[in-house]
Predict the structure.
Amino acid sequence: MAIDVEKKRREEVQTVREIIKIYCRGHKHKRNPGDTLCRDCQFMADYALQRLEKCPRMDIKTFCSVCPIHCYGQQEAAKIKEIMRYGGPRMLFVHPLMALRHILIEWRTRHGLRKKEAVVRR
Ligand SMILES: [Zn+2]
């Protein structure tokens, strides 16, 4: 089955950005007028984006949360986890379709990854 890697990458980038936005607004971070995110959250968004752009496993993994390679630094990993815990469930209300797709793909990955990994890993 052919997988549109770039489409998946774009979708993941979009999802991550939305979740960080929800987190930033929910915590009433101080933003400069016209900015979508505060400086800290913008940093995390850029960081996540960079990781995604360099991700070599886009074709087999779906979301960073279920990826066995932890390419995030320790601090960044803790921060993004906090953001996801806050923003993830709230996505259901703000972007129900995007959230449902995320949940579905994540569930499928968790239940199918092990088998696929064994084949792909050298
Ligand atoms: Zn923020």
The mean pLDDT is 82.
